Structure prediction request, 487 residues.
Amino acid sequence: MKLLPVFLAVIFLASGCKQTSDSSEPQARPNIVFILADDLGWSDLPAYGNTFNEAPHIDKLAAEGVRFTNAYAACPVCSPTRASIQSGQYPARVGVTDFITGHWRPYEEVIVPKNRTQYLPEEIVTIGEALKNAGYATGYFGKWHLGGNREHHPLNQGYDEANVGQGYYHVSFNPPRETNSPKRLSELLTDFGESFIENNKDNPFFLFVAHYDVHVQLDADQELIDKYLNKERKDSYPGNAVYAAMIEHLDLSVGRLVAKLEETGLEENTIVIFYSDNGGLIGRFDKIPLLAQDKLSVYENNPLQYIASSNAPLRAEKGTVYEGGIREPLIVKWPAKIKKGRISEALVTSVDFYPTLLEIAEAETPQEQILDGKSLLPELLENKFDPERAIFWHYPVYHHDVPAGAVRMGDWKLIENQVSGKVSLFNLRADISEAMDLSELYPDKTAELKALLQNWQKEVNAEFPVPNPEFDATRRYEWGVHPDRRQ
Prediction:
């Protein structure tokens, strides 16, 4: 008994020394910064071959990281892709397959399925929740579009700090923050991101900055617009000066956030992800001018009032399952782990971010939540990937095309028209523009991919259009108010 105090003192000192040693060790788990653009196309960035737009900070990000050439959004519109990032599930499984609230053509040949919920289902464990449970500080700033009620706000979906904004110059935030500021929304969101980095620099953090650029209505600082108005076009790209200026606003934000990481000494052990939520928009589905009201004079009596961009050489645009609607720019930088200047042809999709970030953060996979994606660490660290991987799309609504589904496996892609049942087959290695339907020339490959798509549709409980008893061929292209929006 006389030795007990001495024994306890030794234990106490030993444990104290261990605590001191642990606290002085460098942070092992990386910080994560996810920057999401809105409607930015695969062909819009200089890093992907664009010769008109300018994005030097994004170019630098690509030069210092890995640029993916076969990255995809899980849906050709915003809400479903955002749901796939937050849930790790395909939109068809989540039940959000169109933007919230959705498109509606009441007199079309078929009635399209509505979103099962007009918000991200509450039972979903978001990537924010998963990382928060793993000890990460979590912040979300910008466009959410996964439910506007309090219970569906990012603050109730795993994010410690969050401000959802709207507008460009005269912005408002939920919860309120910096109202009546003369700054652009992209600048304010970057301010919030910088503050979050500064306030959490001593602990691992997950920062999600979701920009509104380059979504319509197109708006930007006049000084930047004038810069591009005076710039000569070198190819067939439309060269919309307002759109180009919005890309530069986006690029400036990327530059500021990366500079903040450098300033705080966090750059080496921070993974930065730059991505877009769907393909680029060419023109509005409702055929109205896509410029902000006070920018209409920039292109008075000019077709560029109606044309934002081009996705060439990709076919079509946002709102379709052709490549122009779903193929995305994806750049990932992680100085501690990723070799500079790499290009990866790996097939990746937005459902992959969730399992990737779980592995990076050493976080637990949520129980009873199916994850449809795969971790991209082999692709990121070693450029190892399955060249015959299969990925899927389900977009059963009218937008810039008819309801459709698709599967890509390796170089082959099949698209199914969900109204007529017709299928088309393309080989993207030989025909990135999807100009030549090969379904009749390769019937075995067509049958193989069609069966693969149908089996996946059953697995995720995909919902399909049904015949419309009110079909009126003379009014079929009229747009109506979505039933859920009238409630």
Remarks:
- Residues 241-263 form the longest helix (23 residues).
